[in-house]
Amino acid sequence: MKKPVILLACALASCNYDDGACYPRDQGGNGVGGGVIVAAGAGGFGDVPPDPQDATDPIPPECLDATESPCVNKCLADYVDEAAKCGKIENETERRACQDVAYLGYKSCGLNCTKKQNDCLDHCKDLCVQIWEGCTDACGKDNVCKERCMRELQECLKECKRKCK
Amino acid sequence: MTQPSKLFCLLCACGLVAVPTPAEAFEVNFGVSVGGIQVGTEPELAVSPFVGLRWRTEGGFLLEAHDMFSLLPDDRTVGVHNRTSVTLGYAWDKGNVSLGPSLSFYSMPACSIDSCRRVTGAAPGGHAQIDWYFVGPLGASVSANVAWYDGSSFMLLGSAAVMVTAGPILRLEIQ
Hints:
The structure holds 2 protein chains of 2 kinds. Chain A is built from 5 helices and 3 strands; from the N terminus they run αβββαααα. By secondary structure, chain A is mainly alpha-helical. Chain A is elongated. About 19% of the residues of chain A have low confidence. Chain B is mainly β. Chain B has a single domain, classed as Beta Barrel (Porin). In chain B, 7% of the residues lie in helices and 72% in strands. Chain B has an 8-stranded antiparallel β-barrel with strand order 2-3-4-5-6-7-8-9. In chain B, β2 and β3 form a beta hairpin. The longest helix of chain B has 12 residues. Chain B is elongated. The two termini of chain B are 26 Å apart. Chains A and B meet through α1, β1, β2, β3 and α2 of A and β6, β7 and β8 of B.
């Protein structure tokens, strides 16, 4: 009941929230691709901590990648600390103001993380593609060689994801 | 004895007559379009029934309230997306063009690089539509919408979405 009301209230400014379990892109997407919409960059940053997953349904590693970057975790830890301090303030108005400031700090911190991750990933991908282009040019008409280049490209992209968390 | 509300509905139904559009008219139009929505790099199929209420002046200017409901199927689930827009435009005998703001509510799967979740939200945007009537009240409609998808979702953060659809349209004048 609360979420539809929030949606109506913030419709003019655009808002959204994740709603449901996370799953890897290659499970039930469209072929190699995935779900309906692909956001540019390395995933996003939420303004609230992610909901806990069902213990019987372990989080896929891909979902951990999307939500558990060290950078975002640092923001979250700082936010928890700040919110705890705010919680000790007796005056309700001051407590809420404190919590608002803590929340804005958390959101700003997280957005910076996302931007850094996206910049890192874009740069890394460009390098991988450059290497792949050089590799395929050197292969000429050798298809086996080109397949090897493609495998190397995939490995390179995976390495990007690891590096840019 | 016929109830007043049923009588009213009957009169409304009789008022829907497929005739060539007069200079000044109030009309309802509807149809089903097929197209795609795209955020980032990958487009996805959208099957979109729509309905519009349009009023046009003698000079050809028109005001329209338009609602399009889209089903976004993939192998795992189906996303839903409802867009309402209010547009201003210009009409002539065989067609019309209109443009205006829109507001979309959606609940659909969205993906980051390697993971997906359902994302629910609201997105403001802009809507443009061109209709061309080539057989009496029957024609074709092409619409385009650009909206901004942002919020607390991990999957959709600050993404502009483009949705383009096309399909048959039928207009009925309300007398």
